[in-house]
Protein: CRAL-TRIO domain-containing protein
Amino acid sequence: MTNSKCVLITEPALGTIIKPIHVYDDEHQAKLKALQEYTSSLLLPSTDSYHPWEKRWLSKPDTHPRYLRAAKWKLEDAKKRIFGTLEWRREFKPELIPPDEVKIEAESGKIILNGFDVDGRPIIYMRPGRENTPTSPRQLRHLVWVLERAKDMMPPGQESLMIIVDYRSTTLRTNPSISVASKVLTILQHHYVETLGRAIVVNLPMLLSFFYKGIAPFLDPVTRDKMRFNPDLFELVPRSQLDADFGGDYVFEWDFEAYWAQVVSYCGVAPDGTRVKKESEAEAEPASKTATVESETATPELELSATSPDDSSEEEDPDKLADAAQAMTLVDPISA
Structure:
């Protein structure tokens, strides 16, 4: 076993082949271009303080494909979906959540981002039994902050993540309410479409089986198909990457301050929630990762619309971003 002493795993296992790889034909490319033109027409004006962040999100190569795949390549449906997410992001501002705002939610280790599955997906471990705070909007903001960090850690070509929910030591008191769970599912299914690759549930006691019956109406069929209960984790996660709590070889000694500092540093998050590194540097960094992608199935580069950042765009300047972020007011995600 590897005794990590709380050392974060930031790369997939050596030799990992990133999957799935999405290939788009001419018809797909035409719809992607049409969706990009649509979102270009919705882009906030440059005078808006959130403009650089919206432009940054729309310029990411996976944004438009994910919404078209979720809509089964029905363009009008994809437009409605991405419009809804644009409205949500303008209100929630997921890129601008200061680490200190949600830090208390992470202290117990109830949600930990660490390691990668066999296909190179970042793993988020959720342990409801470690709940340490009363229900509040901050819990949702913490979850979104972790989702954004998981996307930061995705190796090139990977667009999805894996969630392992461990109900060991969970009680009726610590288990999230169906109301909270439905809000979490709404965020995942509506605003992080095609981002959940696998959802694994382990150690679910019979006492809590009602919980999944309660949230079943909120699960779309695609999400339901991605859920598995008590599978063989060794088929899904390399032993070297799997937490020893689940039978893996990676002994992760929980040290909150060490863990938190590593996540914030690796993902380049500034104290005000903006980015420490320039976007060009952040995009270049994953190139050194050890995961490999089969070149014959690589996703073709998409033609970017007018929303693509150029070398002189304002989001490239960390000082300007910091000034913009400081002028923003964070919105209550539950009451909004």
Summary: The first strand starts at residue 2 and ends at 3.
